[in-house]
Write the structure tokens for this entry.
Amino acid sequence: MEGTIEERLKHLIVDALMLDDIKADDIVTEEPLFVEGLGLDSIDALELALAVHKEFGVRTQADDENNRATFHSVKSLADFIRAEQQRSE
């Protein structure tokens, strides 16, 4: 998939979580993904983590206290992906 990491993430969120009533363009990059914002829940977080691993080859750890901050928004998730990809180069 072409585009910025943020654009790819927005499409991934819609596709992986089967959000029929939301388009990728509707997702605000810095808006929270959970509770307020998109209203995703913990099961969505697990599915999203798997989809991010498949798409970008980066992985979060289940017991990482930074996960809440990592998955806060499309922007924070994109920043995490960039940092992990740079670390593995």
